Amino acid sequence: MKLKHKFLWIALLMTGLFASCNDDGAVGLDLLPNPDGIGVFRLDTFSLRTYTVTEDSLEVQQPPIFALGEVSDPIFGLSKVGITYQVRLTNENINLGNNVQVDSLVLALSFDNYYGDTTDQLLLKVYELDETIYRDSVYYSNQVPAYKSTPLATFTYHPRPKGTVPVDEPRVNGIDTVFNYPGLLRIPLSADLSNRILAASGGPDLQNNTNFLNFFKGFYITAERVSSSATGSVMLFSTTSARNGLFMYYKTDTLRRRFDMLLTDQSARRNVFNFNYQGTEVGGRINDTSDLVQFGYVQAGGSVKLKVDMPYLRNLVKDFDVAINKAEVIFEVIPGSDNAPFTPPSRLFLLRADTLNGNSGFIVPDLVEPYYDGNLKNGQYKFVITRYVQDLLLSKRTDFGMVLIANNTISSTNRVVIGSSNNAMYKPKMIITFTKLK
User: Fold this and answer.
1) Are residues 71 and 53 located together in one domain of the fold?
2) What are phi and psi of 181, to 5 degrees?
């Protein structure tokens, strides 16, 4: 992982620890000559300039959540996301025994949540990887892995995120027991793979994980809507459940058994995103800085984000020095744009931009503070960036502006429509409380 991105995503994860704190970010009053508040000014007329830009491809290795599905959105277009990952042996020197008869080979993933309309069916295709993937390598959001052309399974699926799935599990006492697993996706795979695994029993390919991952490199799973007129959904899966993996059910003589190859913390994994904005509202507004643009757009997964410029901020210190007591930025969600099934992100992040409108590795200093916020409340996303604004005013560095991005951006396709700086009713606001120092 690139070092600057590593620090950025660590900072974003840390902010979750402070989401419920009440500190409002007002600072400096106790350091001023008039601690009772005399001489403090409040301005809410600072002009912001916003427009929509595409997100650069993001590093997506080792996501906390898998995302799999396809959604057709009348505003944002077509969003698709697949997953790729390894399964690993739980023991070494695997020998399944003699007189083995395979019942089934099943790929399983545990639900976490979903986005979109789960009444629409999805067509899932499971492929075998044709390249080795690595846990400590960098992969990008639009980077499709090499995979074998013939699928291991083609599975028509009606998402059941809250349903239960009965599974007949073998027990050590030889008596099978049916377990009702909640929110579980189970895909039966072709006999070709189970025959290969059976043939490898007792040999070097099942001796250890190094050999096994050379023998079977992993999966690439894709999803598409069964009906092209459907909305579709993106299913979110846990990456830590003990029920995630590849399970082979077989018999030796009369005893039924199960061989586990699991998705573990040591497994390389990532999400693979693809977006098509052709003919959509979003597609016609990317990089459009005209005064006619009323809306801005933010979507997770390496899709689009909002560029935010503060062109006149330094006018505040043109004639006198100031101490910033509080700097707050508020973005308004366009009413009706967030109706189900297109739920907006629960949180956004306002970050420092780099020269190419990317997400700078130099973090906003307020980002890890309790008051930073960014959570969706009453149709608004609010941010307190007091230290960032004070630092910007005191420094001589070039201001490249900021970018507004979605949370869970490497594990989601959630999106939101924001009022732009041209929108009279829902334009973003910047409110600064400050004290003149001389």
Assistant:
1) no
2) -85, 130
Contact 296, 302 (CB under 8 A): no
Q: What residues does 80 pair with on adjacent strands?
A: 70, 274
For residue 169, the SS3 value is strand
Tell me: do 28 and 168 sit in the same domain. no
23-60 pLDDT tens trace: 676 655 444 445 555 578 898 888 899 999 999 889 99
Q: Which of 247, 267, 287 is the last residue of a domain?
A: 267
User: Phi and psi (nearest 5°) for 8?
Assistant: -65, -50
DSSP string, 386-400: HHHHHHHHH------
- What size, in residues, is the chain? 438
Q: How many angstroms separate the CA atoms of 213 and 335, rounded?
A: 50
State the sign of the Cα–Cα–Cα–Cα dihedral 149, 155, 158, 159: negative
The position carrying tokens 């200093």 is: 365
Taking the complete model, does pTM exceed 0.70, yes or no?
A: yes
> Burial level of 401, CB count in 10 A (0-12/13-18/19+)?
middle
148 — phi, psi (to 5°)?
-70, 145
Q: Is residue 404 part of a domain?
A: yes
> What is the SS3 assignment for 212?
helix
Tell me the β-bridge partners of 165: 181
Distances (CA, A) of 348 to 40, 136, 164, 306, 408: 30, 27, 33, 11, 9
Distance between CA atoms of residues 228 and 224, nearest Å: 9
